[in-house]
Specification:
alpha/beta, Rossmann fold, single chain, 246 residues, four-stranded antiparallel β-sheet, 20% strand, Alpha-Beta Plaits, seven-stranded mixed β-sheet
């Protein structure tokens, strides 16, 4: 079991969603959010005086829909969107993708019936979980599209997904920004994640004197992870909530 030490009340939680708080699904719109998750996160946020943020590749509106009726501080689309307080407006930290680029990438659904293209305004993801044989062709076609387009975008890998994102955007950069907020300032950041896109967030948390906690899955093998999977993460968070409320 992960131990945070004596001063747990002085930590700040930064939490990925897919593969961390909830199980990865075959398609982005097929995830199942446990009923106990939104109230659990609300309890933790209250006990930490608001020092809890969701840090995800999902758009913030998706996060709100999944965790309704609760709202939280969120870094969405890998940090391209920020909401600095639960009741504040969403801020954009990147320019929307060019329509011609979107149209070119959207054509990749023709490679295999299982390919899913997900547009997030500031990034675009191509999922191949239901079309694993198309992985190399997808990567090659995406790289070809990027090579002939603007140079401010990069291709990132994830769990059965390739995503085109602005090169200046990262979850780690988002955590750097959030830690400047009064609600997080002076606290020990704890980042929990499961994927390649979480690596920069792990680095930021450790750089600021905190912890990087990994969830086992397709990227982190069990022997190098602190958690077996999302149920383990939720159980640990539930235990933490109980201790903070004592």
């Amino acid at each position: 079991m992960v131990e945070l030490g004596e001063n747990e009340r002085n930590c700040a939680l930064f939490l990925d969603i897919d593969g961390t708080l909830i199980d990865v699904a075959a398609a982005p719109d097929r995830v199942i959010v446990p009923m106990e998750l939104p109230p659990l996160l609300a309890r933790l946020a209250a006990s930490l005086d608001g020092a809890l943020a969701i840090v995800t590749g999902r758009p913030i509106l998706d996060v709100d829909r999944f965790l309704s009726p609760q709202k939280f501080i969120v870094a969405g689309v890998h940090g391209a969107e920020l909401r600095l307080a639960p009741d504040e407006a969403i801020q954009s930290r990147a320019e929307p993708l060019d329509p011609a680029l979107i149209a070119a990438i959207a054509q990749l659904v023709q490679l295999d019936p299982g390919v899913i293209v997900e547009l997030k305004q500031f990034s675009i993801a191509v999922h191949y979980r239901m079309a694993p044989a198309a992985r190399l062709r997808i990567a090659a076609e995406l790289q070809k599209i990027l090579d002939s387009g603007p140079d401010h975008l990069i291709l990132c890998k994830g769990r059965a997904v390739f995503e085109v994102v602005p090169k200046h955007i990262s979850k780690g950069g988002a955590i750097d920004v959030l830690l400047q907020l009064p609600v997080f300032r002076g606290r020990r950041p704890i980042m929990i994640g499961d994927d390649i896109s979480d690596l920069s967030a792990f680095e930021a948390a450790v750089r600021h004197g905190g912890l990087a906690l990994r969830v086992a899955g397709e990227h982190f093998p069990r022997e190098m992870a602190e958690f077996d999977g999302p149920p383990h993460v939720r159980a640990w968070l539930s235990d933490l909530a109980k201790r903070l409320e004592e």
